[in-house]
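Write out the 3D structure for:
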Amino acid sequence: MEGQTPREFFEKILPTKFKPEKAKGITTIAQFNVSGSDGGNWFIIIKNQELQITEGMATSPDLTFKLSDTDFLDLVTGKISAEKAVFTGKIQFEGNIVTALRLRDAGFL
């Protein structure tokens, strides 16, 4: 299982899934606003092939993802693809889709 809650994913799972070699050339700040009883706000910063995860709100994110806690868990466990989640409205996304797809390649989704 990829984490029982979004918090567990950000704190325990994501640091082990991140692939620095796939993040070459990516510099971005991505905000995740997760609603629901297990929700919260987190942002990640990728710079120089390093990942920083912070709870809270970024001042000027390059990418913003808004989704429910259940949809978030479906996404990170592979029950729904990122593309399908966007097209079906499960994720509200703002920002550069190319950068978002590169995040996936770096092990994020």
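Strands lie at 28-35, 40-47, 50-55, 63-68, 92-94.
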